[in-house]
Amino acid sequence: MTALPTSPAADRNKQAILETLQRVLPERGMALEIASGTGQHATWFARGLPGWQWQPTDLQASAMATIAAWTEQSGVRNVLPPMRLDVTSGQWPEEADLFGEAFGETFDAVYCANLLHIAPWAACTGLMQGAARVLAPRGVLITYGPYLEHDVPTSPGNLAFDESLRNTHPEWGIRALPAVIAEGQRAGLHLRERHAMPANNLLLVWAREPSQPG
């Protein structure tokens, strides 16, 4: 078996995320993944969610070959060829004609992991607005990663991580969840579910309608 580029973080968190997705998502649907990176999540989730078709995307053209190689090596049949997508663009993805032909321009889920803290704030705006454009009426946006919460103490590890991110790039950093919620609401998406995950991360589910009390 050929050794492929790997993300240690994706390898560590893939099973915990999958188990949450299996509880959150229906039995079948179409998913669009933003910032797929190596493609490890796409192939792992496709195997664990056999009723779902998974469309990986990434900004980096160099990621296309890696995602395709992970898909081929995994043997899964429900991961589609990767497409290039700039989350801040008003057109998702660049191959817009192929996109519309394949999916009717809507998805049952949009999934994005570990992007918002290693990108400018414009990526958060673009993610919320773009997801609102392409989600089916009852579709959900799922985001995963670290967040700063006003009523939850930030772990020492996340504080150090946030400092290192901001030292690396002035526009990076762990995002304050209230600011992300406000950005989602401006796009018509509401935080419906919050799932605490290992290593002080959160998996958040966003929908057009907020959760109902009781």
Q: Which descriptor suits the 3D outline?
A: globular
Q: What gap, in angstroms, lies between the N and C termini? A: 51 Å
Classify the oligomer. Answer: single chain
| pLDDT averaged residue by residue | 92
Number of beta strands: 9
The fraction of residues in strands falls at 15-25%
Which sheet architecture does the biggest sheet show?
A: 7 strands, mixed
Order of helices and strands: HEHEHEHEHEEHEHEE
Biggest sheet strand line-up: 3-2-1-4-5-9-8
The number of helical elements comes to 7
In helices, the fraction of residues equals 25-40%
Rg calc: 16 Å
Which residues sit in consecutive blocks of at least 5 with pLDDT less than 50? none
Name the structural class: alpha/beta
